[in-house]
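Q: How would the structure tokens look for this protein?
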Amino acid sequence: MTRDKLPVGIQTFRDALDVAHPPADGPTRIVSLVPSLTELLFDLGLGDQIVGRTHYCIHPAPAVAAIPSVGGTKKINHARLRALQPTHVIFNIDENPRELAERLAADGLRIIVTHPLTPDDNPALYRLLGGIFNRVEAAERLAAQFEQGLAELRRETWPRRQVLYLIWRKPWMSVSRDTYIARMLALVGWETLPAESATRYPELELNQTSLDAADLILFSSEPYRFQPTDLVDFAQDYACPPEKLRLIDGEMTSWYGSRAIAGLAYLRQFAGMASPTADVSPAHNPAPGTA
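A: Here is the predicted structure in token form.
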């Protein structure tokens, strides 16, 4: 995608592709193709400027339901999106195809590309969107809340543990250590397995060796929504101690944006409950989103 040539002296905000975006001048019409960023836009006070979203954008309910959907994060209805006459379309490198961004940019739409890789990237993300859409004060409030939560988490001493974080079944899939999820879990001393992977979301062949290496096996609520019965079946199928198995809220570990602020508090409580001295049996698992 080509970079806009902006007049010298105008303040700009650079996205993940180092494209410079000036503050919006006049009314904006935003299409968000990233569920977690749709929520962030609402929390920045921009809900009335969002004209389109994906059908995976579910927060905040019920307000988001009134916004037209243009499709999924990978495939959209181009005619429907163009009919919304957006001034800005928000993308993420991991969630949306590059070809889609390039096509919309070629159509003359302003594309904002994001790519947070670690929890520490969240304040910059707030400031990027807050700066572009003239919500600087709201962005700073969110950044302060996040930084306070992060500092509280880092002040505690967490025992180092090996965790297998499952995101899918048939085939079993996990996360590599260079993902946002793994770096979120690392805040409480949890190292994801496998230790090395050629892909960011590896398929797994589970065996006794790999299961024994894990201190905890975490079953995420997304993208596959694991249920308590999955943990019971897993314990039986793999002769795995039930106390090693835990349901975990995937939104709290994988969603950057404003959800990450709640995610820090959730992870702090979750890790405390999953400490070696805590009862971590499935019967004591909080339902995802309730801890």
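DSSP finds ten helices and twelve strands in the chain.

The chain has two domains: 13-149, 157-282.

Upvote if useful.
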